[in-house]
Design a protein that fits this description.
Helices cover 26% and strands 27% of the residues. The chain is an alpha/beta fold and 289 residues long. The strands form 2 sheets. Strands 6-7-8-11-10-9 form a 6-stranded antiparallel β-barrel. The termini are far apart.
């Protein structure tokens, strides 16, 4: 079996565990090591030769960008492929990463197939993917720059957001009735829920803490799946963003006991440990109390 080492760097254990599980399920010959922050990553990179690094951008003490810049200044690892994993998808951040020498870029949240395709595309340049994969798996195809094409699932087409979804939820009425919403159900704010297939779902924040958020969306939107990764973009009045928080879908349920319920409740558990996000989220939550 090929001797290939992968380093995953992320302060969120959920993301590290996800990467390890996905890689080992399809490319079991790869040895996966993990680092909980940038400083730990530098320590490992100074002692171990890795074939590829997957690193989060936003981490306490040392960012993924700083890890990348350090690597590109070291003879030992200046040529090691580096994939940045981050919820920072704005153009200026992408340009900054490219200028620093990033090999590829994957935005949070991501699907298993997106992660596998990114890793396989990089490794296929120097390694035999068939030697890294299970022998009883369907053969991997390296054509078209998509070595996992035979296994990949095409991303779902992004569904349009109903123009009246926020208006219905924040207007103080239940769909199809004139009943007023109880005080305990008054929305705490607006948010966008970004999912691994590039879908963006407009939603209302029913409840939120520093650990989790309960969101309400219309059933005609893309319905989130339990345990899939997600990014919650919390907004202030006027559309100004408060925080962009990484998490995973903990539960999904109908908002009422009816098969025709127009709304579903989605609980997202946060996995970020970034101090700046924590501070922004703290101010937002405190303002609601």
């Amino acid at each position: 079996m090929a001797d290939v080492r992968l380093l995953v760097v992320d302060d969120a254990s959920f993301i590290r565990d996800l990467v390890k599980r996905v890689i080992k399920s399809k490319l079991p010959a790869i040895e996966v090591e993990e680092a909980v922050n940038g400083k730990r990553a530098l320590s490992l990179l100074g002692k171990v030769d890795f074939d590829i690094v997957l690193c989060d951008w936003e981490m306490p003490e040392m960012s993924g960008l700083e890890v990348l810049q350090w690597m590109r200044g070291q003879d030992r690892c200046k040529q090691v492929p580096f994939i940045m994993i981050t919820s920072r998808i704005d153009k200026e951040y992408v340009i900054q990463a490219v200028q620093s020498g990033v090999t590829d870029y994957i935005g949070k949240p991501f699907s298993n197939e997106q992660l596998l395709n990114k890793v396989a595309k990089v490794l296929a340049k120097k390694h035999d993917l068939r030697a890294l994969a299970r022998r009883d798996d369907q053969p991997l195809q390296a054509a078209q720059g998509n070595p996992l094409q035979a296994q990949a699932i095409q991303p779902a087409k992004i569904q349009g957001v109903a123009a009246d979804s926020v208006n219905v939820l924040t207007g103080g009425k239940s769909a199809g009735s004139g009943r007023k919403v109880a005080a305990s159900n008054v929305p705490k704010g607006l948010a966008q829920l970004r999912l691994p297939d590039n879908a963006t779902v407009r939603c209302v924040i029913k409840d939120i803490s520093l650990q989790e958020a309960t969101l309400v969306v219309k059933t005609e939107e893309r319905v989130p799946k339990v345990l899939e990764s997600a990014v919650v973009d919390i907004e202030q009045e006027g559309g100004k963003q408060v925080a962009r928080v990484n998490g995973f879908v903990f539960s999904v349920q109908a908002s009422e006991r009816s098969a025709s319920s127009e709304f579903i409740s989605v609980k997202v558990v946060f996995v970020d440990n970034d101090p700046e996000k924590f501070e922004a989220l703290s101010h937002f939550v405190a303002g609601l109390r």
